[in-house]
UniProtKB/TrEMBL annotation:
<dbReference type="InterPro" id="IPR029069">
    <property type="entry name" value="HotDog_dom_sf"/>
</dbReference>
<dbReference type="InterPro" id="IPR050563">
    <property type="entry name" value="4-hydroxybenzoyl-CoA_TE"/>
</dbReference>
<protein>
    <submittedName>
        <fullName>Acyl-CoA thioesterase</fullName>
        <ecNumber>3.1.2.-</ecNumber>
    </submittedName>
</protein>
<keyword id="KW-0378">Hydrolase</keyword>
<dbReference type="Pfam" id="PF13279">
    <property type="entry name" value="4HBT_2"/>
</dbReference>
<dbReference type="GO" id="GO:0016787">
    <property type="term" value="F:hydrolase activity"/>
</dbReference>
Length: 138
């Protein structure tokens, strides 16, 4: 039996201050959305105690922009935790408007202890909340 990432849907609020001089969402706003989506993913799926004990620091984001977004668009970010290695987590986030992919983002994050602010490994039982067992027959 294999494990697959549990997809997490995050509704993005396209705000007037996301719009740049060309009339569409500024590239920097996508980064803000990814950070909000990943943190929301963590808070929604992790046990309450783990959320209280750990914080996340972004290490790297690689964004591929596909299409522009506009003020009245209905935008959703789908977050997948690809893997956890030590104190690092690797995410894929796809930002869509309906069936159109607006941006694809690969990011890595460091888990830190909320008190010491030092890198912290997550227990396997916490990591398991982000994955579902996939039946290869099914």
């Amino acid at each position: 039996m294999t494990m697959s990432a549990r997809p997490y849907e995050f509704t993005v609020d396209v705000a007037p201050d996301d719009i740049d001089f060309m009339g569409h969402v500024n590239n920097a706003s996508y980064l803000k959305w990814v950070q909000e989506a990943v943190i929301s993913h963590w808070r929604s799926l992790a046990p309450v105690e783990a959320v209280a004990q750990h914080l996340w620091v972004a290490l790297k984001h690689e964004i591929t922009y596909r299409r522009p977004a506009f003020l009245d668009d209905d935008v959703v970010a789908t977050v997948l935790l690809e893997k956890v290695h030590g104190a690092r987590a690797f995410y894929e986030t796809v930002i869509r408007r309906g069936g159109e992919v607006l941006a694809e983002v690969k990011s890595s994050w460091c888990c830190v202890d909320a008190e010491t602010l030092r890198p912290a490994r997550l227990a396997q039982n916490v990591i398991d909340h982000f994955f579902v067992k996939a039946d290869p027959e099914g």
